[in-house]
Structures are given as structure tokens and as C-alpha cells.
From TrEMBL:
The protein, known as: Uncharacterized protein
Species of the source: Cognatishimia maritima
Top-level taxonomic group: Bacteria
């Protein structure tokens, strides 16, 4: 039986890809999110990131997990499983 003060967090495993986007007058390249996939295990997210990073149109890929409090909807900071290729600095996320 669950008590009122107990909370069960939910873990999400995400693969997120990045593509280069040229913008501005000097056409500087910046990164933007390409695709996002959610999986039920860390291995699935990491395997997808590794496959996506090999794609010609993918600049880089992350696989990470985040913890969500379903009661409040708050989501914690990402815990990276793997970062491949050209990915944004952690402070830029």
C-alpha cells in the first residue's frame, strides 16, 4: 500500500540528435535539435544514439536519462549515457 507522502519517480531514456543550422549574415553554424526518441531502457537509447550519429545528416547525438516526479511534473537534469559527435555544451542545454 502506498502512503500519501511516498512518491514514485519515473525514469525516461532519451536519444536526441542534433543538426547544424546556418543562420545570420555570416552564415555561422549552430546546433538545433533534430529528432528525439524515448525508450524504456538505457541500452536502447544508447544504441539509437550510436546509429543516429553515423547518419550523414546528423551532427551529433546524445543518449541520456531524466527523472520525472509525476506528482509535480518536475523533471531533473539530464544524466548523459553517451555524447557523440558535435553536441552542445552541457551549459547550453
Amino acid at each position: 500500500m502506498k502512503h500519501a507522502d511516498e512518491s514514485t519517480s519515473k525514469i525516461h531514456y532519451i536519444c536526441q540528435t542534433y543538426v547544424e543550422q546556418k543562420s545570420g549574415r555570416n552564415r555561422q553554424a549552430s546546433l538545433k535539435i533534430g529528432k528525439q526518441f524515448q525508450y524504456s531502457t538505457a541500452a536502447e537509447a544508447q544504441n539509437r544514439a550510436e546509429r543516429e550519429a553515423l547518419s550523414e545528416d546528423c551532427a551529433g547525438a546524445d543518449a541520456y536519462m531524466i527523472e520525472e516526479d509525476p506528482d509535480s511534473g518536475e523533471v531533473g537534469s539530464p544524466n548523459f549515457l553517451v555524447r557523440l559527435g558535435n553536441v552542445p555544451e552541457i551549459d547550453d542545454l
